[in-house]
Amino acid sequence: MSERPLLSRSAGSYTSFGALWQVLKRRRRMIGLIEAGLLLLCLLYCIVAPNQYEASAWVEMRSESAPTLSLETNQAVFSASILSAPMALETQANVFRSDQLAWRVITGLKLYQAAGFKGRFEQRFAGFNADHPNVAAEQWLLGRFHGRLHVQALPRTLILEIRFRSRDAALSAEVVNALIRAYQQEQSEQRRQIALQNSDWLSSQLKQLRQQMDEDQKRLDAFRTTHGVLSQPQPGPNGVAQEVAHDSILQRIDDQGKQLGEATSDRILSEAELHAAEQGDPELVVASDPHLQAAGNEFPVALLQQLRARRSDLDLERAQLSAEHGPNFPRVVEIGRQLQDLEAQKKAEDAHLLANFRSALGTARSREQMVRNNLEELTAEGLKQNEAETEYARMRQEANTSQLLYSQVLAKMQESGITAGLQSGNLSIVDPALTPSRPVAPNPPLYLAIVGFVGLWVAVVTVLLAENLDRGAHKAALLLLALGLAATARGQAPTPSTSGLPAGVARITSSQQTQVLPNPQESPTIWNGAASMAVQPGATPATTAQAVPMAALISPDDLLDVSEFHTPEFHTAVRVSATGTVTLPMIDQVKVGGLSELQAAHAIGAALVAKGMLLHPLVSVVVTQYSGQDVSVLGEVTRPGVYPYTVHHRLLDLLSAASGLAPTAGRLVNIYHREDSKTPHPVVLDPGGNDAIAEHNPELKPGDTVQVSRAGLVYVIGAVIRPGGFPVDPAQGLTVVQALSLAWGPAQNASAQHALLIREQKGGRTMTTLNLHRMLRGQEPDLPIRDRDILFVPDSTARNLWNRTLESSIQSLVGVTIYSALVYSQRY
Fold first, then answer.
1. How far apart are CA 34 and CA 485, in angstroms?
2. Less packed terminus of the chain by CB within 10 Å, N or C?
3. pTM of the model
């Protein structure tokens, strides 16, 4: 039998599965020996390695309670689950990992003598004394203890898991439970010591407060008996009863003082109102004071308001008539006489209001004097009594403060005496550590499975390397390793986004490609891509900015909108006659033909002044419709329609008004003139969009029609990154390589040597086989592609299967290797 090569060079340079199978079959003995050797070594290790037992316990972290001896009743206490549960759990885990707790467990259980923990400790540190250990021995024991201890927080809980591994199952459980007990004992001792220290200090303070409270009470009783102060108990803050001094004379003085203040305020207000009424307008004074408005009978202002409103209306009417007809107009003279009558009536009413203001001031002064006399009589009687009660209130407040502080200290003292020995820690045991029944390491089934899988791959790679070294063809092994590293580093490539595709590319469903895809923002543009961006991002065609019309002269058959600011009834819409005149209300005909909008407005205003209708007219003229000044835009534009000729004169201006070319537009534009609507005048647009000479941007005429042609489409399908249809310009053309670049190139598993170009012709479809690899390297000419052509890139099933199998295998191998390393690292 002749040997077949591992790699066969064909058109696609594919790897031969048959050759690979022959190599593995020929070297099956080597593969078996490698696999059996590795499995035997693993089995011997599982037999020789000592068993490791691991015990675990769960403890729950509770929220801290308020300090026992805190005098603040509203002290905020927050739960660790609300504020910083992860930080609190990590802090507690570090406490369990501390050297202090570890040393207490080591010395308490005498782990340096335990067979399942000590190892070769006795040989290394002979004569070890736990009461006076040397630094080296202590560090060795602590390091060995921490290496077997694992403390971690369970995710999204307030529970800590404590695990310890050793060769003795009972010892593992005993160490975990002893560590928890050591933590609870240390925490309880610290709390008890702090509580007892605070309790001793509070006892001394309590005696001082009691003496001060008794002295304050004696002084209060003596002062109340001497000055005859009457008091009554009232509830105070924090529920403590307080004595408040009470006397009827002081209450009456207070009431009389309030009345005097009110009377003085009324008198000052009345004087101010009278002064304002004498110096100004009495009606305005009444209108600004709600108190005077409430007394409607004494200060009537309704008639004055009517007179003022009537006068305002007459002044406005006289001003308007004077501006339009002059001061001698009959109605203007009549309004003047009516205003004189209104002024006389207003003066009479103002005099009546002044009399009422003077009367109100006299009443306010009499009331103020009477209240002042009563207040002076009561003040002399209660002056002495007020001083006594003020002093008593101050003394009472000091006594209440001392009593409140004494009550709080006494309560905390009693509470600390009860809870000093009952204070519990912030941890509770959920599950204590139990003696494990089965070892966690070594695990023969798991170890053998891992070694068997890894050994198979090691054997295959060894066989391939040996085969290639024998033949001198090491490229296959290098290719295999390169593909494995690339698949491991890359994993699964993300599906690229369809945003930022070139204009005209059809959007399709996402494909699972493992090739590194280009950035969509860096995708190639086609020749008319700039035209499709005429509409700014975020703006719809209806909201795009329109050009400002240029000034045009008024001509016959134009429609005008004429209005005058002072005369709404003058507003009208009128069409210009053949002679260039318009007929308007009140002024008949006005010549506006050949004038601009501003000139026509001045002409109409002059006619109004000449007719004597208005003295200062404000006329506005707007041309709402021009006659015979439109240009039509049809075809592949964003907004086809009819546009005014006065806005745009050249072809590119008109295309901009139509929001630019559509994504499917071509470069050929046909122009039809009004006088010869059946003969097209072709114009080829500049593909770069920079040349605006008359050849690419001709002058248009009123009534012209612009027809934008449609571009062709080519289709790229099959094993490409982004299949779809792409516009092709008939004038510029497109090649196979350019179409392939618009589709972002061939896919990873594409068979580029067997691509097909399908073309529609009169006799039917023709298919041409293309070698895209040679065409991309310039070894074959780049063929042109035409409208409605189809470029098909087939997929290689063998390459796809090989790449996916190799990728999944390398990923599985790496994952198993990492898992094996983790399992091995947890043994110690």
1. 23
2. N
3. 0.38
The Cα diameter of the chain in Å comes to: 143
Tokens of 104: 């207490």
Report CA-CA distances (Å) from 801 to 47, 495, 798, 806, 812. Answer: 41, 20, 5, 8, 16
486-519 per-position pLDDT tens digit:
444 444 334 344 333 343 343 433 344 444 444 5
For residue 152, the 8-state DSSP code is: E
The phi, psi pair for 668, rounded to 5°, reads -90, 125
Q: State residue 58's pLDDT score.
A: 92
CA–CA distance, 408 with 17 (Å, rounded to integer): 90
Q: What is the pLDDT of residues 272-318, one digit of tens each?
A: 777 777 776 666 666 666 666 555 555 566 666 677 777 788 888 87
Report CA Rg, the chain: 53
* Tokens coding 521: 């923002």
Distance CA 664, CA 635 (A): 10
* Contacts of range 341-349, beta carbons closer than 8 Å, 24 or more positions apart: 342/307, 342/310, 342/311, 342/314, 343/311, 345/303, 345/307, 346/304, 346/307, 346/308, 346/311, 349/283, 349/303, 349/304, 349/307
User: Which residues, including other chains, have CB under 8 Å from residue 485's CB and lie 6 or more apart?
Assistant: 810
| Contacts for 321-324: CB closer than 8 Å, 24+ residues apart | 323/615, 323/616, 324/614, 324/615
589-608 CB burial, b ≥16 within 10 A, e <16: ebebbebebeebbebbbebb
**Could you give the strand order of the β-sheet that contains 619-625, starting from the edge strand earlier in sequence?**
572-575, 559-564, 619-625
